[in-house]
Design a protein that fits this description.
This is Penicillin acylase family protein. Among the domains are: 14-153, Penicillin Amidohydrolase, domain 1, CATH 1.10.439; 304-370, Aminohydrolase, N-terminal nucleophile (Ntn) domain, beta-sheet knob region (Penicillin G acylase, beta-roll domain), CATH 2.30.120.10; 521-703, Penicillin amidase (Acylase) alpha subunit, N-terminal domain (Orthogonal Bundle), CATH 1.10.1400.10. Helices cover 34% and strands 19% of the residues. A hairpin with a 7-residue loop joins strand 24 (709-713) and strand 25. The longest helix is centred in the first third of the chain and has 28 residues, at 42-69. The two termini are 40 Å apart.
């Protein structure tokens, strides 16, 4: 197919008259195509944000909308049907409609103005993204409901429900006692977030009683078994300027285009810059105004439950509830499929939510209870107060209505204050709910409310002078409410803390250097054992010499990083295949956040055991002295096979790299070289602040990484920095499709201009949106 990809690029310079404005809107763009939107009135500014976002990311927005509504098959045919069926079962559109009706007037007007801006672009543009040509489609009008839906679809799979399904499989296959022994939870002695520098002192989690309580309700599941971030804030007492610095990076898969969009919105009462989600107004996760800067990391909180419903075999629309039978709501969903007949499904909805999995005879179903879709979610009412906050007190109060996702919310202000808040709604309910799908019919597992806003975990201006979050455990065992069972190990948090403690009067440059921190704590632990290995052959001998001289830093040019990673991969193969038995393939191959999160936690336990020479997780008859040489030999043999015999060429970046893939590449492989941005070699791994995690099934191609990096300087906002891994544009033919990639790959940043004079000075284009 011979297509001119540049022909679909939008006009970003001509003045355009559009309906729906009360005043003129100006869109300035810098050399990277990043838009700065100016308007007199708030809603005109949001109109401009919608217009500019549609110019750059209309296809991206439409892709997310079709994912949310289960309409991807309309573009790609049968390849999208199964995904569409699952998304229809989650009932995101119905949920978004409920949310919209519950929002206050100010928030609805913001959503409507943004949507009007998107539609103004659609109506005025002479060309649309090249992807519409590839799917023989066209964009549909954007609505305020769509803004809510695309945000939901970006976060629905970031919850914990998959972990509960995975634990149900483990209990069914391995039994309650064995499963309990495999679920050890957060480790004693590892850093928590609140209070800063404190360590977890609680016992390992024990789930055996909860497993026994619910064995009957999950037995039927035997029939068909089916990302992280860093942030750190420094108080003015720790910085050169005397004002706070806020830095971090969200870790996700590298979508194409990237999930975050850099932009700046200014009106009479709003002057906010940050990273938005295309299709959503404001800056929910990362940004700053003239007084306050904010950022998030994923808290890993448990806000998704699975209820096991029993349906009447003689009338499958009725389900049991406290000894009686009540009617479910049945919704028929018709899925249009390009090139073939439509398919339809029926979704039953109970008081606990939509049924997303069912037994073969339909008498048992799993209902999905999720704070974002269970009743009205008015979290978007936080967006305007967030953008207009004048202090950390205002920024805290702005989050009172926030629902999902639950985040480690860190924010600073120009007056010198810093604060941590665990924002979002976490249900209060039985601890059985935390572990497994629970019986829906007895009423014993209902939500009784949410953790009160004034009891959410907080820390303000801690004595140590800084706050660090890296998806590690939030609070100690004395916190009165349950938040979650599983957290990321402390490794990234520990390295950031160690780096911050080593700073004097910190600068923006110091904060940026922490982004490139690549020392692996697990690598340093395993090096002590690997030094004892007696090599078998010259290649192993050379590899061992490389390791002995290594400092544990996962640089992209390091052969040692590759050798260590191959050893650890093969060690996990030997240990986890034994532990999981018949579920080993599922544990090591599965995607999502169920089995992989559990395996990650066990991998952390294994590091601790290696350090202590504890052999409790090793296969029977194995010791650390016996298993390490075997895993080392396995790894060297594998590397020799894929990289050759010259150990000095086994650089980490040869195998550890990005792999950005456009969602249409699989349907148009002949165009993949134009659709897919370049791959780049990277350092780091899943245990280092410079993130670069990978799946066991495709080592060592990166699946999780920094999808943005930032440093906000409260002493001089123009001194702030940021970067994304691709570019501001979602058009494959645009010069801004991947023009930040080289800078990002070097763990460097670009200027984040904020003041009017700085923006004017760096602008390379100007466009006016005029009143009709």
């Amino acid at each position: 197919m011979d297509l001119d990809f540049s022909s679909s690029l939008p006009d970003t310079e001509s003045s355009i008259s559009v309906p729906g404005l009360d005043s003129e809107v100006t869109i300035l763009r810098d050399r990277y195509g990043i838009p700065h939107i100016r308007a007199k009135h708030n809603n005109d500014a949001f109109f401009g944000q919608g217009f500019a976002t549609a110019q750059d990311r209309l296809w991206h927005m439409d892709f997310d909308r079709r994912q949310a509504y289960g309409r991807w098959s309309e573009f790609v045919g049968s390849g999208g049907v199964e995904s569409d069926k699952m998304m229809r079962r989650f009932q995101i559109k119905s949920s978004a409609e409920t949310d919209y009706e519950a929002l206050n007037v100010e928030t609805r007007e913001m959503l409507e103005a943004y949507s009007s801006g998107v539609n103004a672009f659609i109506q005025s543009s002479k060309s649309f993204p090249i992807e519409y040509t590839l799917v023989s489609g066209a964009p549909e009008p954007w609505t305020a409901i769509d803004c809510i839906a695309v945000y939901k679809v970006r976060h629905i799979m970031m919850g914990v429900f998959e972990g509960k399904l995975w634990r149900a499989q483990l209990v069914n296959e391995l039994g309650a006692e064995v499963t309990s022994n495999l679920l050890k939870g957060y480790q004693e002695g590892h850093f928590i977030i609140v209070p800063p520098l404190h360590k977890y002192s609680g016992p390992a989690v024990a789930g055996v009683d909860h497993f026994r309580n619910n064995l009957e309700s999950i037995e039927w599941l035997k029939e068909s078994p089916d990302s992280g971030s860093n942030s750190w804030a420094l108080h003015g007492s720790k910085t050169y300027s005397g004002k706070p610095l806020l830095s971090g990076d969200p870790h996700r898969g590298l979508d194409t285009p990237n999930c975050y969009y850099q932009n700046h919105v200014t009106s009479e009462s709003i002057d906010a810059i940050g990273l938005s989600f295309p299709g959503v107004p404001g800056f929910p996760h990362f940004g700053h105004n003239q007084n306050v800067a904010w950022c998030v990391t994923h808290a890993g909180a448990d806000y998704q439950d699975i209820f096991v419903e029993r349906f009447d075999s003689s009338k499958l629309t009725k389900y049991q509830w406290k000894g009686s039978q009540i009617d479910s709501e049945v919704r028929k969903e018709v899925i249009k499929v390009a090139g073939q007949d439509s398919e339809s499904i029926e979704v039953r909805v109970t008081k606990h939510g939509p049924i997303f999995m069912e037994s073969e005879d339909l008498t048992i179903g799993l209902a999905f209870s999720y704070t974002s879709t269970f009743g009205p979610n008015i979290g978007f009412q936080s967006l305007i107060p967030q953008m207009t906050a004048g202090s950390i007190a205002d920024a805290d109060e702005a989050m009172r209505d926030w629902v999902d996702p639950c985040n480690n919310y860190v924010f600073v202000d120009v007056y010198g204050d810093i604060r941590y808040l665990n924002r979002g709604k976490v249900p209060i309910r039985s601890m059985d709910n935390a572990w497994l799908p629970v019986p829906a019919w007895d009423g014993d597992h209902e939500w009784s409310g949410y953790i009160p806003f004034d009891q959410l975990a907080r820390s303000t201006n801690p004595e140590n002078g800084f706050i660090v979050t890296a998806n590690n455990r939030i609070v100690n065992e004395d916190y009165p409410h349950y938040i979650a069972l599983e957290y990321a190990p402390e490794y990234r948090a520990r390295r950031i803390i160690e780096r911050v403690l080593g700073l004097g009067k910190a600068t923006v440059e110091d904060m940026m250097s922490i982004h490139s921190e690549r020392t692996s704590i697990p690598a340093l632990v395993y090096m002590d054992i690997l030094k004892e290995v007696v090599p078998s052959g010259p290649i192993e001998e050379t590899a061992k010499k490389v390791l002995i001289d290594w400092n544990g830093v996962m640089d992209s040019n390091s052969p040692a990083g590759t050798i260590y990673s191959a050893f650890r991969l093969k060690l996990h193969d030997r240990v986890f295949r034994n532990l999981f038995g018949s579920l080993a393939d599922e544990a090591l191959v599965a995607g999502g956040r169920g089995a992989p999160r559990h395996v990650s936690q066990l991998a952390s336990n294994l590091v601790t055991d290696a350090n202590m020479r504890d052999e409790s997780l090793l296969p029977d008859g194995e010791t650390w002295k016996s298993i390490v040489p075997k895993a080392f030999g396995d790894g060297i043999l594998w590397l020799t096979d894929i990289l050759g015999e010259d150990v000095t060429t086994w650089e980490w970046g040869r195998v550890h790299h990005t792999n950005p893939v456009h969602p249409l590449s699989q349907y148009h492989p002949d165009l993949s070289r134009k659709l897919d941005p370049p791959s780049v070699a990277m350092g780091g791994d899943g245990d280092t602040p410079q993130a670069g995690s990978f799946a066991h099934t495709n080592p060592f191609v990166m699946t999780g990484m920094s999808v943005a990096r930032y440093v906000f300087d409260a002493s001089n906002w123009d001194n702030s920095r940021w970067i994304v891994p691709l570019g501001s544009s979602g058009h494959p033919g645009s010069p801004h499709y991947a023009d930040q990639l080289d800078v990002w790959s070097k763990v460097e940043t670009i200027a984040m201009c904020y003041t009017e004079s700085a923006v004017d000075e760096t602008a390379v284009s100007k466009q006016l949106l005029l009143l009709v």
